[in-house]
Batch of 2 targets.
Target 1
Amino acid sequence: MKFSSKVQRCGLSPMRKFHPYAVAAKAAGKRVYHLNIGQPDIETPPVYFQAIRDFSQKVLEYTESPGIPALIRQVRSYYARLGVELSEEDVLVTTGGSEAIQIVCNCILEEGDEIIIPEPFYPNYNTFVCTAGASIHPIPTTAEEGYFYADRARIEAAVNEHTRAIMVTSPGNPTGVILSREEMRLIADIARERGLFLICDEVYREFVYGGEELSSMIQFKGLEENLILVDSVSKRFSACGARIGVLISRNRELMSHALKYCQARLSVATLDQVAAAALYTMPPDYFTATREEYKRRRDTVVSKLQQIPGVVCKCPGGAFYLMAKLPVDDADKFQQWLLTDFEDHGDTVMFAPGEAFYATPGRGKDEIRIAYVLKQADLERAMDLLKLGIEAYNRRG
Amino acid sequence: MKFSSKVQRCGLSPMRKFHPYAVAAKAAGKRVYHLNIGQPDIETPPVYFQAIRDFSQKVLEYTESPGIPALIRQVRSYYARLGVELSEEDVLVTTGGSEAIQIVCNCILEEGDEIIIPEPFYPNYNTFVCTAGASIHPIPTTAEEGYFYADRARIEAAVNEHTRAIMVTSPGNPTGVILSREEMRLIADIARERGLFLICDEVYREFVYGGEELSSMIQFKGLEENLILVDSVSKRFSACGARIGVLISRNRELMSHALKYCQARLSVATLDQVAAAALYTMPPDYFTATREEYKRRRDTVVSKLQQIPGVVCKCPGGAFYLMAKLPVDDADKFQQWLLTDFEDHGDTVMFAPGEAFYATPGRGKDEIRIAYVLKQADLERAMDLLKLGIEAYNRRG
């Protein structure tokens, strides 16, 4: 039987592909410290569960394809607090930020098209871009420069006649890089000058550790036709399992095409929408404690990493990820070995090997992504395990 | 800005495109009887809501990308009762049956490919096929023959070098047509002989009104490489808003490609999976009352329709839809007129105009799909409104 050439070009998730080895390691009695998946351990606000308990309709019906009015209203209020007035038509509720990205790719990309994305990037972007028949044109970065990419010459060097869009994630997954106001403006200018869509994945907006004000690309004027925003409750409210995201744009034609997809899949899960609306009633200072917790974790991970000989890691400004360059030949082999051959007092550690975060062949082979989503003591132990693992791996015959 | 040529070929949902007119009609004080959407009014089993209330984890986490083991186990038990042994790897949980179809289309179709589907068909199939770059090659049917399509010559006439798959929905949406055991075997034979995938959307399996035993294409032997099954809790348990479906196949390569998509969108909503597992604990006779209720409704609608002069409608065997041919020039215009210009004692009626259910240009213009999802008295009133509407529409100057 023949399969789509597009799906054959896609790979399994680097965050999830070592799952079977982890299962085997656990079955063999090992404790695995998971730094591979961005699953926060912060409690989901109880209003989420309460809203679902309070749901009293007897028939669990489809909702409106664009999302329930109560949730759209809450999303608009949230953006109003950032100084952004959105109309109802500017917002479509999606099944996680993932679906928003998938819909956007299907609306604006097709065979032979390119989308500019700084690499390393969130690998699932590649699946969505590939499925649409297009490819990622990466903006190269280096670990030594802290994965910096917001430079006019570098970005413009990637633009050609196939380019349809620039996509940025800020705060960044997997690098933790955050764009300054000036860098955001630069990228916005390039998108406008070149007539490109600008897709901004801002699901980590609150996760900034330098005292920065909350910001969004949608705060800039004159970007109405270009800007497409992806947002989600997953990280903001530690509600990954809700699968509630939004697609925001003032480009009417884009939104009318996106609505076709929303209608084709009928609606987003009803109870999760109701409960997500409740999440947005959390007071604005709800996030303060979470931010402090993550800042502490980042500082722990970075300081521990920088103490490992041969590791390259600049301190990132946001999100809860960082990329690091390791003194190993191949992070994929190293990860597998950590699960099958290594342990320290019964413990081992898991991260996401770097290669799948790159479009350029051969790049990222000695890099890993770390998600610092564990409690302080566990994080410290995990970083110690990484250090011990590197030493043992490089000592083995 | 340029958009994908594929999305430009897709249309808005015929079930949902008159929504703004319905809103306006209601705002003007009209009562609208909705026969346009397959939203059952049957109560969702309370175990659904109870399972969610009992959920005690404090962090709403992502689940496994293929779905939670508890739900996969329940799906396997359900199929075991149909005499079908599924392994864990044969099942992927999806965000509604819709996502299952979307994933399958992306895995097996690409530019220039064709998929054979009897027309009229569920219009959202077209969006998923189109997005994958392929097109629907319809098997023509007629209202006069009760939309019969399970004929070797008719199906084989549609096969060519571009054909990748045959897709059938039984019991059928929008026609209510059900395949007999022999017809199923015929279609299975053709798929196997021609080396085609056979995609079976069986989400209405329980909705059969002639005393038929529950059946599935997966009960046939020797179809392991060809068969792809789409199923869902939406209709079976009146839980459309759960957005929980499954993709079932024993074709290992297909499932490995499908898993890439499942991983890219991370997971299906956690609480809805937990609650859907609870739905499958309903006793096998749970469905008896529902089936009787729908049978009564079907009989009401068919007998009322057959009394309207000029209407063509054969009594269908299953699902809760039927297609009917009306004595009007254009069902789209007629629907709009019913919402804007018609009322009887403040009431009007809404159905899904037929054109979007066809791939062949010009076909279906005088047909409508009716979803008989209202209580008996409301259904009778709705059919009377249809009769009055047809008369008034054809009398207008």
Target 2
Amino acid sequence: MGILAVGSVALDSVKTPFGREEEILGGSATYFSIAASYFTEISVIAVVGEDFPAQHVASLQKLGIDTSGLEKRPGKTFRWRGEYGFDLNTAKTLDTQLNVFADFSPQLRAEQRKCEFLFLGNIDPDLQRKVLDQMERPRLIACDTMNYWIENKPESLRKTLAGVDILLINDAETRQLAREANLVRAARIILSWGPKTLVIKRGEYGALMIDNKAAFGAPAFPLEEVVDPTGAGDSFAGGFVGYLAATRSSDQAALRKAVVFGSVMASFNVSEFGPRRLAALTYAEIEARFREFRDLTHFEDL
Amino acid sequence: MGILAVGSVALDSVKTPFGREEEILGGSATYFSIAASYFTEISVIAVVGEDFPAQHVASLQKLGIDTSGLEKRPGKTFRWRGEYGFDLNTAKTLDTQLNVFADFSPQLRAEQRKCEFLFLGNIDPDLQRKVLDQMERPRLIACDTMNYWIENKPESLRKTLAGVDILLINDAETRQLAREANLVRAARIILSWGPKTLVIKRGEYGALMIDNKAAFGAPAFPLEEVVDPTGAGDSFAGGFVGYLAATRSSDQAALRKAVVFGSVMASFNVSEFGPRRLAALTYAEIEARFREFRDLTHFEDL
């Protein structure tokens, strides 16, 4: 089995300058899994309430996603309501209702503990570690986080980071976590805490991957239509970890291509509300955009 | 003769989180010319007052810059005072004293009119056109502008743009000029007004070049020391136009390498106050950083 992903499965209500949608499928584990499903086998660990529409589960299963770890509990599904202005880089959270997510305590089954690739979506670092500690011997552990945990659970987050290989994080959070304004120095500080690689997501500006030996920068794909940035970071992570799991490698060459596949998946995701576009891709479309990325970024040698 | 550059030569007072300097050499034509001087012959058209230190003229001449078009006029030199916070992307202008620049009316000599490459630095678009109209048959015209002219002289700016080949502009100004929030669509609008190529400067995030056929994105060089961003855009322009003039080409391959050389020059410039570092480079250092840019951006094919 390929990747085990823990995170949220949610019902999102989103408003952007280009429209609004109520209670659509959302959540970090959702976007991640859909993106990763084009590359490898993927199992979701998450919880939903009794009100979670069966057709959403069916649409994940249709993509080959293993939803046997998607627990259904008495109560309501996690809900998020957010809004974007014309600067689509930052979401304004209007409301968060944890609901069944408040008591989420993932218990992995024997075969889930054996997964070789683990993605710890943006949830409480205590929960991330609870999953991590149940794993037998994962080959690669990638992790996401956000300002909320940096502010409210910094010590727990540091403990989680000590056990992960790759941290995916946005640039403002990188500075906040390291308490350092210079991004490169901030990255070096975080690398000293455990992760071997940092993938810094910069929204419409692209991504910067830094480890102790090298740096790799990729612009975001320039798009004429950006409708809803929700899930862009998780789609990126899904393409990134998905490619690494599919090739079972994590050397510099693989990591660079993984960043590009991450950017590809994020670029598709933002072109429609929710994960709609992401869920309707073909691998040929993904490969074509990967090649367009090469055209976008390469220049000849001297 | 290579490039003719018109713009400001100034005395800058700059404060950043890393220090402050009073009345140091500055101005768009200064940064541009110093950066371009590593690539080709460059002549400056600008005006200074009687108070302009002779050693600044000598330091430009030492780099091989032709200062015969640097007029000295009765009165004081143009002065700019600015400040940067920890977000080094945006300067806050505290004071601007036009002084002798207020009556600047450049008159080109016969040999200056014959220059093949023209750079119109960020000055009043009326003045930019006054220079442009005196040129005989320039091979390539590049132009910079800023929010002040977009707001105060939009019609004159549109007239100037109709006559230029390449517009270098930052991303907020691209959106402002086109009155369009989506950067790619904003670029297409501006391209329809005359320029064949737009080079969108994005500060620490890099640059995006767009024409009607292709796009090229380059990250900024990740730096552990950014001390003073003043002149980064003009240093970029100097490397960019300098490379094109040196190779006498402007096809897509040359334009892409020119963007990288622009990024290289900007990356050196920001590492010390004023144009100090920029003025003390060797071509070997420039080439070495160009190769580092390749390492920063390239990934293998599928």
